[in-house]
Design brief:
It catalyses: orotidine 5'-phosphate + H(+) = UMP + CO2. Belongs to the OMP decarboxylase family. Type 2 subfamily. Its EC number is 4.1.1.23. GO terms for molecular function: orotidine-5'-phosphate decarboxylase activity. By secondary structure, the protein is α/β, with parallel strands linked by helices. The chain has one domain (about 5-295): Alpha-Beta Barrel (TIM Barrel). Helix content is about 45%, strand content about 15%. The protein has 14 helices and ten strands. The protein has helices spanning about 5-15, 30-35, 40-60, 70-75, 80-95, 110-120, 140-150, 170, 180-195, 215-220, 240-245, 260-265, 270, 280-295; strands at about 20, 65-70, 100-105, 130-135, 155-160, 175, 180, 205-210, 230, 255-260. The strands form two sheets. An eight-stranded parallel barrel has the order 1-2-3-4-5-8-9-10, surrounded by eight helices. A two-stranded antiparallel ribbon has the order 6-7. Helix 11 (about 240-245) links the parallel strand 9 and strand 10. Helix 3 packs across helix 14 and helix 6 runs parallel beside helix 7 (about 140-150). The longest helix is centred in the first third of the chain and has 19 residues, at about 40-60. The protein is globular, with a radius of gyration of 18 Å. The structure holds orotidine-5'-monophosphate. The site of orotidine-5'-monophosphate has 18 residues, from strand 10. Orotidine-5'-monophosphate binds near residues 102, 162 and 234.
């Protein structure tokens, strides 16, 4: 089954459009995991990141549509961190969760092929279901990813309108009256046009931030065949009303990511008093329920 159809099936099966972002950070790890790290070696932290993420995966499996490990935090630890990333991806897939690896990769076509093969190819050592990709090297940089998606029924999410305040400097620029982000959306629509699955969606998803609800509505209309990954919910200020326009009339077409507000829920004021550090996984569970409930439209 194509990635787009698998995502639709996961949303229907779980009744959830939540994507749990796995963004481990040393300083914010719950005390029981942080305090068990002996010394300051990358190996020790990598083991802690694996344990932290895998325990979260076990709690959210079957209750959310997908997870999104953020490669940056694993890369920070060097080679040991990359091994941990591989273990977390494998654990999530074994738990039945779809995995969006957040690497925001891309390069000239010949190198893009290597990135695509690495994360999504038939022989991929990572075995991810999908990958976030930057569009700014143009059409020939995206084509290798789309081809690899075709081979392994994988998916990508192309940055269209990012959640950060500074993204507009380039993305909102207009040429002949069209914004750069809309030009990216046009390219995505073209790639998907011959690849739409039963769900009505293709392998080339897009990223639009919850922090830009107007542009999200605009992009939903311009991108009928593209799953939209919506980051920026929770910690960056986006709320349920901001993401509603991302969905189609069936409640499909978008997944909403939250990282810090779920994985570090034990530190949020509304959960802090209720759950002690030892119950950090109960806080993850409660934050997941809370987000699922908010996003039932
Ligand atoms: O591609 C992404 O996931 C992404 C795109 C974007 O525009 N904004 C954005 O925040 N993200 C990622 O989504 C996650 C957001 O984390 P929280 O703000 O903690 O929920 C981080 O891993 C970001 O790198």
């Amino acid at each position: 089954m194509s990635f787009a159809d698998r995502l639709a099936a996961a949303v229907k099966a779980t009744g959830s459009v939540t994507c749990v972002g796995l963004d481990p950070r040393k300083a914010q790890l719950p005390a029981p995991i942080r305090d068990a790290v002996s010394g300051d070696s990358p190996d020790a932290w990598a083991a802690a990141y694996t344990q932290f993420c895998n325990e979260i995966i076990d709690v959210v499996a079957g209750r959310v549509a997908c997870v999104k490990p953020q490669a940056a935090f694993f890369e920070q630890l060097g080679p040991a961190g990359m091994v941990a990333l591989g273990e977390v991806i494998a654990h999530a897939r074994q738990a039945g969760l779809l995995v969006i690896t957040d690497g925001k990769r891309n390069d000239i076509g010949s190198t893009a092929t290597a990135y695509a093969d690495a994360y999504l190819g038939q022989q991929s050592p990572w075995g991810s279901d999908s990958l976030t990709v930057s569009p700014y090297l143009g059409r020939d940089s995206l084509e290798p990813f789309v081809e690899v998606c075709d081979q392994r029924e994988a998916g990508i999410f192309v940055l269209v309108k990012t959640s950060n305040p500074g993204g507009g400097l380039l993305q909102d620029r207009k040429t002949d009256g069209q914004t750069v982000y809309s030009a990216v959306a046009e390219l995505v629509t073209e790639f998907n046009s011959t690849r739409l699955g039963q769900s009505g969606y293709g392998p080339v998803g897009t990223v639009v931030g919850a922090t830009y609800p107007e542009q999200l509505a605009e992009m939903r209309a311009e991108l009928p065949g593209s799953w939209i990954l919506i980051p920026g919910f929770g910690a960056q200020g986006g709320g349920a009303a901001d993401v509603q326009a991302g969905f189609d009339e069936r409640g499909l077409g978008a997944v909403v990511n939250s990282s810090r507000h779920i994985i570090f829920a034990h530190a949020r004021p509304e959960f802090k008093d209720k759950f002690g550090d030892a119950q950090w996984l109960d806080a993850v569970s409660a934050a997941t329920d809370d987000m699922n409930a908010q996003l039932r439209f």
